[in-house]
Design goal:
1 helix, mainly alpha
Length: 111
């Protein structure tokens, strides 16, 4: 072999070594990116789970608020009905008292 062919072989070997080093470096970057993607994927899954739980809690809260509003409405209706019943009962008691008063007042005068 001549010096020029050895020189060419040396350059080729250096190029191969350099290419291998770049390939190794690139592989390390790819591996690092793959780990980062896996970690991000796990984080995204946790985030989706958290969002789903939050949406369920909001739906439950809305349902609870609706039920409370219904109960408050029923209480208002019952309070109105109770007030109407109280007014009617007082009117009936007044009529009874007046009827009894008239009757007994009449009996006392008849004696």
């Amino acid at each position: 072999m001549t010096d020029s062919s050895e020189s060419r072989l040396d350059r080729i070997e250096r190029l191969l070594e350099s290419s291998q080093q770049r390939l190794d470096s690139t592989q390390q970057i790819v591996d690092s990116n793959a780990r980062a993607i896996a970690a991000n994927s796990a984080g995204m899954a946790e985030l989706r789970t958290g969002i789903a739980k939050q949406q369920q809690q909001q739906q439950f809260q809305q349902s609870l608020n609706d039920q409370i509003a219904d109960v408050v409405g029923l209480i208002g209706t019952y309070a109105e009905q109770t007030e109407q019943n109280r007014i009617a009962l007082r009117a009936a008691i007044r009529l009874l008292v007046e009827a009894l008063r008239d009757r007994f007042s009449g009996n006392v005068q008849a004696d």
